[in-house]
C-alpha cells in the first residue's frame, strides 16, 4: 500500500478474521496458517471448463507445463485461508481455480510471505500472485495487475438497527485495534460530530476482528467498521443477526500481479471476462457473500492511487 494509512490497511487485511461456520468466533491470526475452528469452504463449487480460444493465449512456457504457479499468503479469511483439514480455501482460491480451468491449467498454490510474492513474480518463481493485493501505482512500477474485485470500508449493524456511518454521533462503534478504521476513519468522523456540536463517536477497539464483530452481535457496540470483504463475510456467517450499515466507501481494486509486460495478463483478463459473462464469477462471490465487491470489467493496471 502507499503511505502510512495504506500500510496499516495492508496489515489489517493480512490478519482479519471472521465468524466460524459453527457460529462461534475464531481468530485466524498471522501466527498460524491453519485454524482448527476456521470456517469451512462453502459446499457449492463452480466447475469451469477450458475455453480453447482463451487457453491458446497463455504464454508457451506456462501452457506447456500445464500448471499455473500461484504465490499466496495465508491467512486472510474469507479471501484465502486454511480449513480445518489444512486445505487452502477462500473466494480468491475458488476464483483462481475457475480462471486456471478456463485457461486449461492446473493451479499450484505456493505459500510465501506477503512481501516476497511480488519479488518472486519478478524472479520467475511464481506466475501470478493471489493474496488480495491492492493494485497501486507504486506496485505497477514493479508488476502488472489484472483487477478482479473492489474492496473498501464497510459498516455492519444489528439487523433492524437505525445507524449509518453518517448518523453515528454518540454511538459505540467497534473496530479492530490499530486498523485504519480506528486510527483514521473513526477519529475523523468523530471530529465532524463534535465540530457540529454533537456527541463524539465512542470508538471501541478490540485486539481481534472477531471480538469486534461479536461485540455488535451481543449488543456491546452499536455498529462495526472493517474492511469490506471481512464485513460482508461476517454478515453472511451471522445468519441474519447483522446487516450492512450504509455502502462501501474508500474503495480500491484488488488485482492479480504478474510479471511486467507478460502476455499472461491478457490471458487472465480474458478468462475473467468469460467468467463474468457466463455468471460463474457472480456465483463464486455469492458463495462467500461477497457480491458487493464484484466488478463489471477487469482491466490491466487499474490503480486509482
In short:
The protein is built from eleven helices and ten strands. With 305 residues, it is of the alpha/beta class.
Outline the structure in words.
By secondary structure, the protein is of the alpha/beta class. It folds into two domains: 193 residues, 3-Layer(aba) Sandwich (D-Maltodextrin-Binding Protein, domain 2), CATH 3.40.190; 95 residues, Periplasmic binding protein-like II (D-Maltodextrin-Binding Protein, domain 2). Helices cover 34% and strands 22% of the residues. It is built from eleven helices and ten strands. The chain has a five-stranded mixed beta sheet with strand order 8-7-9-6-10, sandwiched between helices. Strands 4-1-5 form a three-stranded parallel beta sheet, sandwiched between helices. The N and C termini lie close together (10 Å). The N terminus is likely disordered.
Question: What secondary-structure arrangement, pairings included, does this model have?
Answer:
Elements: H1 3-15, H2 52-55, H3 60-65, E1 67-72, E2 81-82, E3 88-89, H4 91-102, E4 106-111, H5 114-122, E5 128-129, H6 137-140, E6 143-158, E7 172-176, H7 180-195, E8 202-206, H8 209-217, E9 223-227, H9 228-237, E10 242-259, H10 264-277, H11 280-287
